[in-house]
Amino acid sequence: MLMSLVSNGSLLTRPTPDVIIPWWSFTKTVLATAALSLVRDGQVELDDEVPEGPFTLRQLLRHEAGLADYGELAEYHAAVNQNQSPWSADEMLQRLDASRLRYEPGAGWRYSNVGYLYVGRLIERVTGLGLEEALNQRVFSVLGLTDVRLAQTQADLRGVNMGTATAYDPGWVYHGLLVGPLTEAVLLLDRLFAGQLLPESLLREMQTARQLGGPIAGRPWTAPGYGLGLMQGAVEGGLTLNGHTGGGPGSIVAVYRCAVGDQTATCAVFDEDSNEGAAEAEVVQQLSSRIITAP
Question: Distance between CA atoms of 157 and 113, rounded to whole angstroms?
Fold first, then answer.
């Protein structure tokens, strides 16, 4: 297990500097950040319908658009496990019958990687750039990160610690798979919420979460919710976390930040396992050791 921790702006723990890992669904937090930078600049509006609609950017970012998810397809998992070549995005959408909404946008919640495929396309459309270049310009360069990249082919995963997966093709992640040092994941989240990229008003929007019910068995969440590209809510021990957990064949990553008064701490954990709860519990333990809560 690798771990990186920032407390009150100071990097306290650093994994081996040259270890590059898949960011899995923490990529969604980065996509949401880039999309919100477009909102900041007046290039898009959170509550305007996107061309793939009838749903809005806000609904896509918060998984409220009514879309299904290709992770529901048994043939998707079979193809990945058999190391087949990825389907084209159009083929995936056709197999999923993605144009058929599963509920009225805004009326429900359903985690959907397809929604973030559309977010990535919106970023490319508005900026006129490829996704990697857009993310570099609008997020990574602003936050001082230099070693994050978008993996698009198996060759792009050479030198990446993929855990127990030996032949994964990142083309199976249709919204894009970022890879980079765990240290840069923790610095990204810490610097983002320190106000180095988005104004306070959009950071508040980002943390306005749809509540998803009570505790999750085997995981530390006691009141989970989902904001704009963020898993957000209360965990065991009384802290409230903002960040994202992600997983794929062979590994898990969990990146979270908490703040109590003027105390802040951000932790990222990478584990060569498939146990989301164990990675999240390690994050909670590390953050709890840095943050003093009122009795």
Answer: 21
